Amino acid sequence: MSGAAGGGLLVAGTTSDAGKSVVTAGICRWLVRQGVKVAPFKAQNMSLNSFVTREGAEIGRAQAMQAQACRVEPTAMMNPVLLKPGGEQSSQVVLLGKPVGELSARGYHGGRQQALLGTVLDCLAELRGTYDAVICEGAGSPAEINLRRTDIVNMGLARRARLPVLVVGDIDRGGVFASFFGTVALLSREDQELVAGFLVNKFRGDVSLLEPGLDMLHGLTGRRAYGVLPFRHGLGIDEEDGLRVSLRGTVRESVVAPPVGEDVLRVAVCAVPLMSNFTDVDALAAEPGVVVRFVDRPEELADADLVVIPGTRGTVRALEWLRERGLAEALVRRASDHRPILGICGGFQVLGEHIEDDVESRRGHVDGLGILPVRVRFAREKTLTRPVGEALGERVEGYEIHHGVAETAGGEAFLDGCRVGQTWGTHWHGSLESDGFRRAFLREVAAAAGRRFVPADGTSFAALREEQLDRLGDLIEQHADTDALWRLIESGAPQGLPFIPPGAPA
Predict the structure, then answer these.
(1) pTM given for the model
(2) Rounded to an integer, what distance in angstroms lies between the CA atom of residue 43 and that of residue 261?
(3) Residues 271, 410 within the same domain
(4) CATH code at 362?
(5) Structure-derived torsion over alpha carbons of residues 121, 122, 127, 129, reported in degrees to the nearest 10
(6) What letter does residue 251 receive in the DSSP assignment?
(7) Quick one: 446 and 472 in the same domain?
(8) Which GO terms fall under biological process for this protein (predicted)?
(9) Is 429 among the residues known to form the active site?
(10) For the ranges 79-88, 200-209, 383-392, which has the lowest average pLDDT?
(11) Best label site of 235, 279, 285, 499, fewest CB within 10 Å?
């Protein structure tokens, strides 16, 4: 396959969580395996799950994962606008990788969003001038008609950049045909002209039973299905919405491979509000014999060999939540009993003696849990770095995203933080993806917990991630009409697609 410079495609969805991120990654991996120079793009992302690029820019982790699918380094241009919720009413706005302020939802959609459109279009144009193809991901649904006037990520972007649009629907939820039809019917004539067709995601069963419905949908809309992707477990990598995961709480539990040693190792992750970068524990879940579950009650810590307090966009709010639920008291008891605890970023900060916060919560002096000899002061400038270091005799890589500056007054050094007894704290996200360090850390945890658990020497988190990305590429290659997809990317939406007036058919 030879690529025409500047080709592009927008992957939209009938809903949030329809599978846009993984489909985008799958298309990217399929293309790069065909020799196409490809890049991902998401104009505007709302997520607490972020990553730091080599130039020190903060972007959505989904776009970093998609860049890996493309086998290129992620850059700020791939996600020029990132919104990080600080609650239900406001978000931090990150522009080209740097925070530029806090805005309410009304303020953002009331005018600020359109002011960012020029930056978004410039980034996309630069990517399209550099790569053979740019695969763009939408956000939510393109049929959010209340937001269409200020949209810069779905049809607003598609119209300005003349991108063909592929609409993904999650059939596992039910109602996919109504969702496909309704999505198109709610769009204006000019927007509909760019909607080329549909991609069914997460189908279980005999595809032949689905085909009559796809034929009827084609007859009703004039738009074809570009493929039916089967349901596959374990492909929801680097999800965007930490808020949703924290609400799912204990429902999310890792699927465990058999242990190498005699025992499994149980990890409980406190599902703090505004949880960020919860993917830090994915590397633990990838280890054979490690069970990872999200918890929100103190009794759920009782049988845990390791408790993780993850990052959060609201450190003071997380402290209050831990106290309200009795988890704070359980953590203090656990530390005094020398049972393992790991705090990461905001989770590290809550373990300290006190916090001075005039930036995030603006609550001033707040007492921490007092488990670690650490004092935290929130700075207005955000720390965004990609540190490399050593711990437990192993090389460690990570990334930092935080306003809190920690001053350590004791304990044993641990990365940028400290360790006291079996309580560990660090600002470094991603450290557990360093295989040697992760195994050394788990050996310490197992010894402290009295578990006959043995980390698997052959587990490579990077290799597992590559396998997942290849599985996504396989899904596209084997179950989508790739020739038709390439024609969309290269030539745009077909001409003469019919207009579906709202309310049709009768």
Answers:
(1) 0.90
(2) 46
(3) yes
(4) 3.40.50.880
(5) 110
(6) G
(7) no
(8) cobalamin biosynthetic process
(9) yes
(10) 79-88
(11) 499
Peptide bond into 505 cis (omega under 30): yes
Q: Which of 402, 403, 427, 429 is catalytic?
A: 429
Chain centroid to CA 311: 14
345, 402, 403, 479: which is the annotated catalytic residue? 345
pLDDT class for 107, splitting at 50, 70, 90? low
Q: Give the CA count within 13 Å in the CB-facing half-sphere of 244.
A: 8
Token pair for 426:
């660090």
Q: How far apart are CA 109 and CA 126, in angstroms?
A: 25
Residues 27 and 129 in one domain: yes
Counting the structural domains of the chain, the total is: 2
Measured between alpha carbons, how far is residue 27 from residues 104, 117, 137 in Å?
A: 34, 25, 11
Domain residue limits at 114: 7-236+466-486
Query: Is the domain of 171 the same as that of 296?
Result: no
Can 345 be counted among the known catalytic residues?
A: yes
C-alpha 61/C-alpha 237 separation (Å) is 10
Q: Does 343 share its domain with 436?
A: yes
What's 195's DSSP letter? E
Dihedral class, residue 279 (left if φ above 0, else alpha if ψ from -120 to 50, else beta): alpha
DSSP secondary structure letter of residue 309: E
